[in-house]
């Protein structure tokens, strides 16, 4: 038998972004010993490193924050409809200081491995500082969009200029008057292109596959609006937590074809003018992402808008998607208008794929060398399970997470994994799709419920305090996620980060619960608080 590890701590959290901070907040008053580690030098997670020009959350400011601290909600300042990266980072730091959470945190400490020690019901965790920790509860909160996706293009190392991924933008990178190439046109690419075009010498957008993007209509908020929000926060959160996507507005129950074509056009126009891609998807119609014909009509509407805005018809052609409007929608702050600038051009990678990077250019298949000073990779993320599989995690019988998830990640309620006792994933694979902050909060609540229940069982009847989802519950949850995805056109798009197809070799499949935040919260809270359904008895 292995020796009993010395003095395990109760809780070890990995990650100081929204997930880890929220989890530490939620557990802080339970009388447990707790540590939070992060490989980065400070609080912030993804919002500490995604400092590219234009980085912003397209979830509206009033609900891109924790819902738990009523006084803070009413007093913390924000001035615009959306929060930019510096404001989000400042909010997270503020929340940490306000609740005295920094005392749990240790930075510049990367998780290397975690192994469940059967005999003593603890996790043995090795980190980059050379230390080993033992913890009863191991809580990875490592982010859904965190591990960068680097394209495999020959010649990277030969490039004499600078190359950066948007998610690791160097603080000293100055693009002024430089020749810039941007690969990728998801949310990050759209934001960076729109924000740097006016002060670079030239910008070449390398587009493999254009996406639909809607105006964000960012604007300052008025004092009247802020007062209204403050006075209605209770109702706002109650509505949001019971809603489908959790973005803080009432989702429509109007079918697209229930109104006549003229009125439909008017409603779409209204959505376009009011702004926000997420609102566009759900605020006036209930079936844009479930009814293929409704979706086609909406695609036509957006395509017409692109044609109207982009004056050069060749550029417009390259910007117009010919797929469904069924990815995580993107909002923009003048993206299509940016392509009317003479210093902005487009290379369509479907016509002329990238062949290699040379010392001063990206060379495409037609032999053209696009001369560049800086290459920006806006190429997205090895999302959802990417960060969890980067490290070596082994559960019961030494079985690794990598082997267990060889055909795609699994979970119970996005937070628990069968065979990995007392490992709780904050917003892990098959967590709910929607506004990520309430999704994180829901997962944190399930985890805290489970910890409280285990602690109470230990105290009351000498339980070992081991929380473990059953294999049956895990596969049942997987089926529920499959069923929910079947009703959504999102599942037709196989090459997005949501299905895993954006990263070569990654198994493609359902990675989120598309059944809505309201039902997710109801099922998770009922299982972890009341019924204990899906868990091995404590
Ligand atoms: P996304 O949405 O995954 O977008 C990545 C972009 O990078 C997309 O346009 C990809 O084109 C492109 N890409 C990826 N690999 C390559 C290669 N090898 N060559 C050319 N282009 C490539 O990531 P984002 O960071 O923009 O946004 C992620 C989420 O963050 C977003 O949904 C919001 O929720 C916040 P492709 O479509 O694969 O042809």
Automatic annotation (TrEMBL):
GO molecular function per UniProt: flavin adenine dinucleotide binding; N,N-dimethylaniline monooxygenase activity; NADP binding
Coiled-coil intervals: none
Keywords: FAD, Flavoprotein, NADP, Oxidoreductase
Name of the protein in question: FAD/NAD(P)-binding domain-containing protein
Gene3D superfamilies noted in UniProt: FAD/NAD(P)-binding domain (3.50.50.60)
């Amino acid at each position: 038998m292995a020796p009993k590890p010395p003095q395990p701590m109760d809780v070890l959290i990995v990650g100081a972004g929204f997930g880890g901070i929220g989890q530490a907040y939620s557990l802080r008053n339970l009388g447990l010993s707790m540590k939070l580690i992060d490989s980065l030098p400070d609080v912030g997670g993804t919002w500490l490193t995604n400092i590219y020009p234009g980085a912003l959350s397209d979830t509206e400011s009033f609900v891109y924050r924790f819902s738990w601290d009523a006084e803070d909600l009413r007093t913390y300042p924000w001035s615009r409809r959306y929060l930019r990266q510096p404001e989000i980072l400042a909010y997270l730091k503020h929340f940490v200081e306000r609740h005295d959470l920094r005392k749990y945190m240790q930075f510049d400490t990367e998780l290397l491995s975690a192994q469940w020690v059967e005999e003593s019901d603890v996790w043995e965790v090795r980190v980059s500082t050379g230390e080993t920790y033992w913890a009863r509860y191991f809580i990875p909160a490592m982010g859904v969009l965190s591990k960068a996706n680097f394209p495999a293009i020959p010649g990277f190392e030969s490039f004499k200029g600078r190359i950066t991924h948007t998610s690791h933008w160097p603080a000293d990178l100055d693009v002024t008057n430089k020749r810039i190439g941007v690969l990728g046109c998801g949310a990050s690419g759209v934001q960076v292109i729109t924000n740097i075009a006016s002060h670079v010498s030239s910008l070449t957008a390398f587009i493999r596959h254009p996406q639909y993007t809607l105006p964000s209509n960012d604007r300052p908020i008025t004092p009247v609006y802020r007062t209204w929000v403050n006075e209605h926060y209770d109702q706002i959160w109650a509505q949001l937590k019971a809603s489908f996507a959790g973005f803080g507005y009432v989702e429509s129950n109007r079918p697209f074809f229930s109104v006549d074509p003229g009125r439909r056009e008017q409603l779409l126009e209204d959505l376009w003018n009011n702004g926000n891609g997420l609102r566009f998807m759900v605020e006036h119609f209930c079936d844009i992402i479930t009814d293929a014909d409704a979706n086609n009509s909406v695609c036509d509407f957006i395509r017409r808008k692109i044609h109207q805005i982009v004056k050069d018809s060749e550029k417009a052609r390259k910007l117009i998607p010919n797929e469904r409007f069924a990815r995580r929608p993107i909002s923009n702050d003048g993206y299509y208008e940016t392509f009317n600038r003479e210093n902005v051009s487009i290379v369509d990678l479907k016509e002329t794929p990238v062949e290699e990077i040379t010392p001063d250019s990206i060379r495409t298949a037609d032999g053209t060398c696009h001369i560049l000073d800086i290459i920006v990779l806006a190429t997205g993320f090895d999302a959802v399970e990417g960060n969890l599989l980067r490290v070596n995690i082994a559960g019961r019988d030494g079985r690794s997470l990598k082997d267990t998830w060889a055909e795609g990640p699994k979970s119970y309620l996005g937070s628990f994994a069968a065979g990995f006792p007392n490992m709780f994933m904050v917003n892990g694979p098959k967590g709910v799709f929607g506004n990520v902050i309430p999704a994180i909060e829901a997962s944190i609540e399930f985890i805290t419920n489970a910890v409280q229940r285990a602690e109470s069982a230990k105290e009351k009847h000498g339980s070992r305090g081991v929380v473990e989802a059953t294999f049956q519950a895990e596969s049942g949850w997987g089926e529920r996620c499959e069923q929910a995805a079947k009703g959504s056109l999102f599942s037709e798009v196989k090459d997005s980060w949501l299905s895993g197809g954006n990263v070569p070799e990654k198994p493609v499949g359902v990675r989120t619960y598309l059944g809505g935040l309201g039902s997710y919260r109801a099922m998770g809270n009922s299982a972890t608080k009341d019924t204990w359904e899906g868990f091995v008895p404590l």
